[in-house]
Amino acid sequence: MPELARLTATLSRHLPPVLRWAGGIARQLRGHDISVGGKTSGSANTDALTLADLSVQELIVAALRDADPLLRECRLEAEESTGDVGRFATESPYTIAIDPIDGTKCYRDRTGGSYSVVVMLQSAETVHYSLVYIPETGPRGTWVEVGRRRSEVGGRRSEDGKSAETAPTSVLRPPSSDASGDRIVTGPDDWDRPAADVLAGFVPVAKTNRPKSRNVYVIGFQQHDRAKADAVTAAGLKGFTADDLPGCVFELQARGEFAGSLIHTPNIYDFPVSMQIARALGGDALWVHNREPVHLRETWLDDRADMLRLPGIVACSEHRDVLDALCALARDWSPIRYRD
Questions:
Q1: Which domain holds residue 12?
Q2: Is the pTM of the predicted complex or chain greater than 0.85?
């Protein structure tokens, strides 16, 4: 069984340059006519698919395959069909999940720079590490990282005071400042420095005295997203659909500009980042019908969109009163995604 601490250390070392390269490819391909078919869910946000999704996933899967044999001991769940996925384990307590282009509709239609590249390490219970690169936010892209990363990068000192070159891998444990131990960082990329060094240099977001936003991202209700967002607003919060978002929801949530989300049958390739952010900040993700904490043990295959989803409607926020309001509002809404 792969050790969790080693997995997160390995991912935090190898993933940052890969996502930076993936973002560069996405930026370049966006200027071309690269839309392809293949998904028939009836939702424009879900069905958008481009050659960039396929190319970026191919790059990420190959990089994970070649970076360290340890990573091949994980299962791999990727939103698209490309890449050497057969080289990864079929049974493992840990899964690497990939969304090569989160926000493909925005990306394809060139309606903003909020799309992102997402990779996570998950178990059946929760998310242990998330890395998000937003290629067109800021002059050179923007990062969001959540989780317990290795405590040294590029020769800096490790926690026990030994240099990074002499400290054994087994003692490189990340700092833990709260119950979850997950640090959240976000900030601009700097192409003059190694990607992992950029991330290691960020100051973790404050977990106290944060802005009390009432903004909630609403998605997954098919043609009813706008009506559901309006219902969230009528409940005393402020609902935003995908078309309304002023940026990448993960960065907005990490900065405290968004309180969370309300999502119908969220997929496992992007939503769990929000769940990890909320839990790291003392909040949670709950199924609205019973207010139980969300886990990843139970999924279903949406064959129209060709992706794995969680059942039901999920509310996610760092703020308990926002969770209360969202659960009360959506408790009796239909958990069925497709009516026909």
A1: 4-200
A2: yes
